[in-house]
Description:
This protein is mostly helical. The chain has helices at about 5-15, 15-30, 35-45, 50-55, 60-70, 95-110, 115; strands at about 80, 85. α2 (about 15-30) packs parallel to α6 and α3 (about 35-45) runs antiparallel to α6 (about 95-110). The radius of gyration is 13 Å and the shape is globular.
Amino acid sequence: MNTSATHNQRIAKMTFALVYPLYLAKVEKKGRTKEELHQVIEWLTGFDANKLQDLIKEKVTFELFFQQATLNPNAHLITGVICGYRIEDIENTLTQQVRYLDKLVDELAKGRKMEKILRGL
């Protein structure tokens, strides 16, 4: 799926610090914990809680966030629809990576077992 250049640019320039509190509120509202959110983010990106806090303080964009990340080799197993887009069909790499993160947060909020979210560890 080809997203517009404007859409991709908007995602690239969005800061992780802006979105992180929304992720946290979403999962906590559904009874999940900050630690579980951090576990999901670390699985996808390799960032531990301390590194996440540094990135939030630095107000890094998603573009820098994913440039610094070591994406999990099993990230390609994250499939499905998020925000109206089929993840596996997104052609822009950065947009796809952000949607991977969105999908993992959604699965966590929906009560999916951690083993399934992390694609069998």
